[in-house]
Amino acid sequence: MQHNTSGHGAPETAAPERDERAQTDDQSPETANADLEAARAEAKENFARYQRAMADFQNYKRRTEEERAQAGRLANLAFVLNILPVVDDLQRALDSLDEKLAGLQWVEGIRAIQRKFEGALQASGVTEIQAEGEEFDPNVHEAIGEDIGEEGKVVRVLQKGYRMGDRVVRPAMVMVGNGQGQG
Q1: How far apart are CA 67 and CA 124, in angstroms?
Q2: 100 alpha-carbon distance from chain centroid
Q3: C-alpha distances in Å from residue 127, one per residue of 57, 70, 81, 109, 139
Q4: Are β-strands 126-129 and 172-177 bridged in parallel, bridged antiparallel, or unpaired?
Q5: Angle 139-161-144 from CA coordinates, rounded to 5°
Q6: Among residues 72, 88, 71, which one has the least CA distance to residue 170?
Q7: Residues with Cβ < 8 Å from 171, sequence gap 6 or more?
């Protein structure tokens, strides 16, 4: 055993360290209650922070899901807006076909292509806006002019209108009745 003489001739010994339990045992009940209340307050504050962080995360998750869905809707909308003129042109071509050509195989092929385009539109959630014979509705119809017929009613559709869900993609271009020609 080594002894350290620090000038006094007596060996130096380390003072016994007090562990935390010994310190808490020495505390008065009031101090212990105050420490417990402080720990409870800190735990409550930490739990509140945790709840706020979870709410922030849920909001972030919802926002990113909405943004992703919006991006998908915009991509579908761009597709629809690019396809509608093709569908219109195919319909006009088929409507203006000479009756002698109506039964030919290539004409039926064009009709099949038109149906596929219309099917792609339907798969994208696009529906045609009903117009002919309906009350004129400026939310879904675009009046190009007036024509003989019941006042305020759509008497002729010049270009079909479409909606995607509740959103009007393209209003129907129509002629509205002027109230003349009714018997």
Answers
A1: 18
A2: 50
A3: 37, 19, 13, 23, 15
A4: unpaired
A5: 70
A6: 88
A7: 129, 139, 140, 141, 142, 161
DSSP category for residue 167: E
Amino acid at 62: R
Instruction: State how far the Cα of 160 lies from the Cα of 118, in Å rounded to an integer.
Output: 12
- Reported as a single tens digit per residue, the pLDDT across 115-171 is 999 999 999 889 999 999 999 999 999 999 999 999 999 999 999 999 998 899 999
The alpha carbon dihedral of 66, 69, 75, 79 has a sign of: negative
What is the tens place of the pLDDT at every residue in 32-50? Answer: 899 999 999 999 999 999 9
Pick left, alpha or beta for residue 135 (phi over 0 → left; psi -120 to 50 → alpha; otherwise beta): beta
Token pair 């209650």 is found at: 33
Read off the tokens for 176.
Answer: 């509205």
pTM beyond 0.90: the answer is no
Tell me how crowded residue 80 is: count the other CB atoms within 10 A of its CB: 19
Instruction: Provide CB contacts within 8 A for 57, sequence distance 6+.
Output: none
Give CA–CA dist 124/59, Å, rounded. Answer: 28
Nearest to 94 by CA among 109, 78, 80, 84: 109
Residue 68 exposure: Cα atoms within 13 Å on the Cβ side: 6
End-to-end CA distance of the chain: give it in Å, rounded: 129
